[in-house]
Design brief:
alpha+beta; single chain; 7 strands; Cathepsin B, Chain A; 7-stranded antiparallel beta sheet
Length: 141
């Protein structure tokens, strides 16, 4: 998987979809705009419907519902993780990252689109505090 850095402070969902699809941030952002989804829309980090629509637009299948995080070894091979979960004055919010296992990795790694990070391929699992995840099933054929 190739890292895609979010171009806007609130563009983590767009960057994560770009990583999963192998597309660029501008390509996913443009597709989102056609669907009425923008990085400025708080629902991208406070509701899962918009990111699910974006994934489905590209033929991906997010599994219904969110699954409570129960351990790194219990994650599926590909998932969107909600980390940095917190409450704001308007409700819950979080930061999206991509979890993946590649090349038969036992534990896997996290790809974090946050611009300010020194490294975007993360294995510092003790520092990340996922609350829940959305499993991404294999694309439709």
């Amino acid at each position: 998987m190739k890292v895609v850095i979010q171009k806007e402070r609130t563009g983590c969902a767009i960057a994560c979809v770009a990583m999963i699809t192998g597309l660029s941030y501008p390509e996913v952002k443009q597709a989102g705009a056609r669907l009425g989804i923008t990085a400025a829309d708080p629902s991208l980090w406070s509701d899962t419907r918009q990111v699910r629509r974006l994934l489905q637009y590209f033929g991906l299948r997010p599994v219904a519902g969110e699954t409570k995080f129960a351990g790194w070894d219990r994650l599926p091979d590909l998932a969107l993780l909600a980390i940095k979960w917190h409450r704001t004055s308007t409700g819950p919010a979080w930061h999206w990252v991509v979890f993946t296992r590649e090349n038969d990795e036992a534990i896997g790694c996290v790809f974090d689109p946050k611009r300010a990070l020194r490294t975007h391929r993360r294995t510092d699992f003790g520092r990340m505090k996922p609350k829940w995840f959305i499993q991404i099933a294999a694309p439709r054929h």
